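Notes from the 1:1 (GR / supervisor)

We went over the backlog. Supervisor wanted to see one worked example end to end before approving the batch request, so GR pasted a single chain during the call. The sequence is below; no edits were made to it. Supervisor asked that the structure be written out right there so they could see what the output format looks like.
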Amino acid sequence: MDKKQVITACVFLHKDGKVLIGKRSKTKSFLPGKWELPGGHVEFGETIEQCLKRELQEEFNIDIVLDKPYSEYTYAMNDGKDHVIEVLYFAQMRDPNQKIKINKNEIEEYKWISKHEVDNYFKDNDDEGNAIRKGFKVLESEK
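Structure output shown during the call:
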């Protein structure tokens, strides 16, 4: 069995005390219909910053300004063949008045949620939900 390392990245895109999440299209093979932070796989030869800017453009049709990384976690997928490292960055929209236009092949719908709404979309033991909770805490501690 060939094992491989996969790098993915997501953004905690925040505005007015809320974070952007998207619901994966039902046609996706991996976790269809799951709510998640925007992002995706870092392609060969691509930096994490290039990946995140590309993914946000492809999925939401917006330009972002990337800030610093604030968290990471790992998980296995494809029956343990792939070890995924997920890196999370803070980000903001380049223009706060940009209109989001989702790519329905990737994202079914999106929402801006507050820290009080995280539990409505992510379970307590969900790595991504925990990373979102951490993101809100880090931002609050920097005020």
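Supervisor's comment: The chain is about 20% helix and 40% strand.
Batch request approved.
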